[in-house]
Amino acid sequence: MTNPPDHTRINDIFLGPLERPALRWLAAHAPTWMTPNICTTIGVLGGVIIFLGYLLSNLHPGFFWLASFGFLVNWYGDSLDGTLARYRKIERPAYGFFIDHSTDAATQVIIFFGLGLSPYISFNMACLALVGYLLLSVLAYIRTYVSNEFKISYSKLGPTEIRALAVLLNTVMFFFGALQWPVQQGALGRLTLNLYDLALGFVFLVLVFFYITTATREVRRLGKETG
Asked: What is residue 208's three-state secondary structure?
C-alpha cells in the first residue's frame, strides 16, 4: 500500500505564484499556539461561515459578503495546515492526510448545501456541482494509492481558483440579484432560464470532463504496466 509520505503532491495552479509565498510567510509568522490541527479546524469553521452566509442571504443580499469572508477563512485554514506542519517539521503524514481530506469532504458538502439554500441558485444544481467535485476528489485519493501522485489541479485550476470564482459569483449575486429570464417552450409552457444554475451546470460538466479524461489516462497507464 502507498504511504502518504511516498506520494508527490501536484498543485500547479494559476494563483500558485501568489499563494505559495503567502503561505510560507503565514507559516513563518504563525503564533506558537497555532497548530496544523487548529488550522484544519479553522478551515471547517470557514465552511460553516459560508453556509450561514448563503442561508442568511435569503434575508438580505449583504450576507453574500459573509459567505465570501468564509471562503477566505476556509482558504487560510485548509491551505495552511500542511504548510505549517512542513515548516515546523512536525509532519504526521498518515494522520494529516486522513484528517485533512476527510474534513475537506465534509466541508465541501456544507458549502454546496449552503449554496443551494441561497435565494438565486437551485438546490438541485448545487448538489449536481457537489457530485462533480466529490467525483474528482475521490479520483485524486484513488490515484494517490495507485500512482503515488496526489493531483489536485487540472489545467491550472485547483481549490484556490474555485474559491476565487465562488467569491466572484457572490459579488455578482450581490450587485445584480436574480438573473433569470422567462423562456417560451411551446407545449411545455413557460420555463425560467437561471444564469447561476447554468454556471453551476457548466462547472459540473468541467469537473466531469476532468474526471473522465484523467481516469481514462490512468486506466491506460495501469493497463500497460500490468499487461
From this structure: helix
User: Grid cell 491506460 — which residue?
Assistant: 220
Q: Measured in whole angstroms, how far is the alpha carbon of residue 94 from the centre of its chain?
A: 22
Dist CA 71 CA 47 (whole Å): 7
Burial class (CB in 10 A: 0-12, 13-18, 19+), 209: middle
Residue 226 is predicted with a pLDDT of: 75
- Give pTM, 2 decimals: 0.91
Taking the chain (227 residues) in runs of 10, the rounded mean pLDDT of each run is: 61 90 95 95 97 98 98 96 92 88 95 96 96 95 87 89 95 92 65 87 95 94 82
- Where does 57-92 have alpha helices with state H? 63-88
Question: Given this model, what pLDDT does residue 227 score?
Answer: 65
Domain range for 97 is 4-226
Q: How far apart are CA 98 and CA 33, in angstroms?
A: 22
Which CATH number covers residue 181? Answer: 1.20.120.1760
Q: Could you give the number of structural domains in the chain?
A: 1
pLDDT at 18: 93
User: Phi, psi (5° rounding) for residue 180?
Assistant: -130, 140
Distance between CA 111 and CA 108 in Å, rounded? 5
Cα–Cα distance for residue pair 188/34, rounded to 1 Å: 58
Decide: helix, strand or coil at residue 118.
coil
Measured distance CA(227)–CA(207) in Å, rounded? 30
Which of the 8 DSSP states describes residue 148?
A: S
